[in-house]
Structure formats: structure tokens, C-alpha cells
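Internal QA ticket QA-208
Title: Verify multi-chain structure generation after dependency bump
Assignee: T.L.

Test input:
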Amino acid sequence: ETGVTQTPRHLVMGMTNKKSLKCEQHLGHNAMYWYKQSAKKPLELMFVYSLEERVENNSVPSRFSPECPNSSHLFLHLHTLQPEDSALYLCASSQDQTREQYFGPGTRLTVT
Amino acid sequence: DQQVKQNSPSLSVQEGRISILNCDYTNSMFDYFLWYKKYPAEGPTFLISISSIKDKNEDGRFTVFLNKSAKHLSLHIVPSQPGDSAVYFCAASAPNSGNTPLVFGKGTRLSVIA
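Actual output:
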């Protein structure tokens, strides 16, 4: 039990669909992150939220839209994705002044 | 340009022997390093970390060594167990806010053979 949960665990969507990924952390952390893991590539940071405000956006296409309504929840809204967006999407959280990030189990996304 | 490199994509080790996973970095501003372990269909799990003010940190069977002059760190697992079979990611961060993003390597797949 990592303290960070993600739903759904698997998602298949067409290129015209709109879907959302959800992340919830039960660790009392105040920062949350979205990462993308593609095959044979390092983990790619997509978004960072600190105290519910976005502090970093690593040039992610606008078809990915994050939302952080509070320090415990993070969403990634998806629309008009491309097949190359198929990947494992990981959520993580951390506490200020520490460097360790704790990851959820990920959502395996397939875009058809 | 990859700032954190794990040049060995895979490693096989006999049960009971030592596993040594290596990581090199290029950014001299990195001052904190972490190792994560990842099983299939799960997120990475934090394993052990080391600050640049140290050259060694030990936690049970896991020891991380840091060689700042060579910009190299390694994770030693001894004795290796079949349950250690997983992908190991090296990560690094530079001093900034407490939410400094981590830069990850591509990972090394460790197989511990019984």
C-alpha cells in the first residue's frame, strides 16, 4: 500500500474520446506530479502542483489538461489523444523540504 | 540530452551474490540521488537515497555509493534474492524548492536467478 491511488488502472480510448485519470494521495503531502512512462524511455515529468498551484509544465501538449482541486486529489483530463500517447501514466506526491516522491500504481492508457 | 544515465539495460545475478547497479550523471548541480524499484504493473517504489554530502548510505541489504568526482553512483544489493527481480531506476535532483522534480534514468532490469 503506497498511500497513492490511481483510477482507472487500465483505459482504452479512441482518438475522439474525452476521459480523465484520477489520483488521490493519503499521505498528507502538499505536492503532486504527473509522469508519463513510455516503452524504453525514462520517466517524463508532465506536471507539478504545489499547494494546488501548477508550478511546472514540461511543454506538454494541450490535449493533456491537469486539475488539482485540493492537495489530496489530482486529475489528468484527456481529449483528442494520439496513438503515441499510449503509455503508463504515473501520479506521485511529496512533502515540502523532502526529495522522496511516492508513486501510485499507474494507469495503463491505450489510444486506438 | 540525458542527464541521468543507466548504461546497462539489464543485469542477471545468482541468488545470494551481490548485485551492483550503476548510474552516471552529467549535471554537477545534482545534490540528491535516489533509487527506485519497479515491479511490472506497479508504480516505482522508493528504495534508498543519498545526499551529496555523503559518499555512502546503507539500509539493510541495500547500500548506495556516491562518487561525486566521477559523477557516478551505484546501488549494491547483498545478498540478492529472487524477490529483488525488478527494474531499478536511478533519479537525481538539484537544489531548488522542496518540490524539485526528479530526473530519472531509463532503468536497469535486474533478474536474480535462484
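Spot checks passed. Chain A touches chain B at residues 2, 4, 6, 31, 33, 40-43, 45, 48, 50, 55-56, 90-92, 94-106, 108 (CB under 8 Å).
Status: verified.
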